[in-house]
């Protein structure tokens, strides 16, 4: 069977989970359609004609087990099934295996196990009724095929919001997305969340499908685009969740007062006291914060008000989250003319020391050079100044985030091309890509 003929129907009702999984499958060379409920899953089997269905158990309208029963009631149906659910109850899994599913995979932020299972299904011949255990190469009389499963032992980074200032929508913005700042790092059973822009809403929906119930939220600063999604964060309403929220000093108000003010009755119908989760507001101090295998440290960035950036170290692999930072504020010259020992850089040396030799730098380059003279001291960098930062920090990879809401996909494509040209001229080996809503980086 050719790769082009490998069609997969993904039955998943959580939109963000469906998007992340579908993109991972498409990158693997598969053609994917999404069905957001059980009824549509059954309908699309005839119109899309998939070879494989990835089936959640808990689906609206018709649940996954009944979808499977209807499939198996048709003797001509040769579509394979992989269960993919956050809650793999023993009874449902037993029934599903009796109905001939290939395998059952528990949902997680790491799509690697699911991709490995999908590849194993097609390697076994891609037919219904064959279990993974019974599909070894020897039993089937075929040569064993080489498989290289995705390894993400250290952790997974996912961007849930990559816009600055205000959410944006519409066809010209679809590829990069329109949610404001939010990132999550998953390491074992631990979830670390950075900023609570509008992207945290979709993240909250995904977290309710996963087993972990203790969350750690790190706020860079309390400007609106970095906290505006919190009132819509589903886990905050669930008493099963414990949520620690960290912030720096110098916000003007303590962190709890900022969030309480955001939920004032004049602005929102629900108050802080109405949130059922165990919320704990904590002020950052000098000591690193340990969350499982992850160690979080922080430093002040250059942005109006008290703004911090975070470094996350997982077994020696480092990620820096710095969505707002104006590097070389007011400098309009060539990035080639700014050595590390220059007076222009002296003010930024503490930050550069914090960033030094980072593996993954997630940081901004909000303005084209032609835009920057009108935006000085707004707290965001020009492309050329941000490129200089990437080189001086000796970043291995730079993921550009905090895209301006006025910049559509075509504009951002051109901006990325300019960024790559500048780095090349500077003889800077840093790999640069643009972040987008749903972007995943495996550590």
Characterize this entry briefly.
The chain has helices spanning 15-27, 38-48, 64-72, 90-98, 112-123, 137-140, 199-207, 255-262, 343-346, 349-355, 383-392, 409-425, and strands at residues 7-11, 31-35, 52-55, 80-85, 103-106, 156-161, 182-187, 190-194, 214-218, 242-247, 278-283, 289-291, 294-300, 308-314, 317-322, 360-364, 397-401, 431-434, 440-442.
Can you give a write-up of this model?
Helix 2 runs parallel beside helix 3 and helix 11 (383-392) packs across helix 12 (409-425). Helix content is 26%, strand content 22%. The radius of gyration is 24 Å and the shape is globular. The strands form 3 sheets. It has a 7-stranded mixed sheet. A 7-stranded mixed sheet has the order 12-13-14-15-16-17-18. The model is unreliable at 136-143 (pLDDT under 50). The chain has 443 residues and is of the alpha/beta class. The protein has helices at residues 15-27, 38-48, 64-72, 90-98, 112-123, 137-140, 199-207, 255-262, 343-346, 349-355, 383-392, 409-425; strands at residues 7-11, 31-35, 52-55, 80-85, 103-106, 156-161, 182-187, 190-194, 214-218, 242-247, 278-283, 289-291, 294-300, 308-314, 317-322, 360-364, 397-401, 431-434, 440-442. The chain folds into 2 domains: 3-140, Response regulator (Rossmann fold); 156-442, 4-Layer Sandwich (Metallo-beta-lactamase, Chain A).
């Amino acid at each position: 069977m050719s790769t082009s003929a490998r069609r997969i129907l993904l039955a998943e009702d959580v939109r963000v989970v469906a998007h992340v999984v579908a993109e991972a499958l498409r990158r693997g060379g598969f053609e994917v359609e999404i069905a957001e409920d059980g009824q549509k899953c059954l309908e699309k089997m005839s119109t899309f004609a998939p070879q494989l269905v990835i089936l959640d158990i808990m689906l609206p309208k018709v649940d996954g087990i009944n979808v499977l029963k209807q499939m198996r009631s048709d003797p001509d149906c040769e579509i394979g099934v992989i269960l993919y659910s956050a809650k793999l109850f023993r009874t449902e899994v037993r029934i599903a295996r009796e109905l001939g599913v290939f395998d059952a995979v528990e949902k997680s932020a790491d799509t690697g196990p699911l991709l490995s299972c999908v590849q194993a299904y097609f390697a076994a011949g891609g037919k219904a009724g064959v279990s993974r255990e019974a599909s070894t190469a020897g039993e089937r009389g075929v040569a064993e095929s080489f498989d290289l499963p995705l390894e993400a032992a250290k952790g997974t980074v996912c961007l849930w919001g990559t816009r600055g200032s205000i959410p944006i929508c519409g066809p010209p913005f679809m590829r990069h997305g329109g949610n404001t700042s939010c990132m999550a790092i998953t390491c074992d059973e631990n979830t670390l969340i950075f900023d609570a822009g509008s992207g945290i809403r979709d993240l909250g929906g995904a977290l309710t499908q996963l087993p972990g119930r203790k969350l750690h939220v790190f706020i860079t600063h309390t400007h609106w685009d970095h906290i505006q999604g919190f009132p819509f964060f589903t886990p905050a309403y669930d008493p099963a969740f414990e949520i620690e929220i960290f912030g720096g000093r110098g916000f003007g108000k303590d962190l709890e007062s900022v969030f309480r003010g955001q939920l004032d009755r004049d602005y929102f119908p629900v108050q802080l006291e109405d949130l059922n989760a165990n919320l704990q507001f904590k002020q950052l101090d000098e000591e690193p914060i340990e969350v499982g295998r992850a160690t979080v440290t922080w430093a002040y960035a250059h942005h109006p008000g008290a703004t911090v950036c975070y470094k996350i170290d997982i077994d020696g692999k480092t990620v820096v989250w710095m969505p707002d930072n104006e590097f070389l504020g007011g400098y309009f010259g060539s990035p080639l003319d700014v050595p590390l020992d220059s007076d222009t850089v002296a003010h930024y040396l503490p930050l550069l020391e914090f960033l030094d030799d980072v593996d993954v730098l997630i940081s901004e380059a909000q303005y084209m050079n032609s835009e920057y003279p009108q935006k000085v001291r707004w707290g965001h960098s020009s492309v050329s100044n941000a490129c200089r930062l990437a080189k001086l920090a000796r970043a291995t990879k730079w993921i550009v985030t905090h895209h301006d809401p006025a910049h559509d996909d075509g504009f951002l494509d051109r901006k990325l091309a300019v960024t790559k040209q500048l780095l090349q001229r500077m003889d800077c080996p840093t790999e640069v890509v643009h972040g987008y809503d749903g972007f995943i980086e495996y550590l």
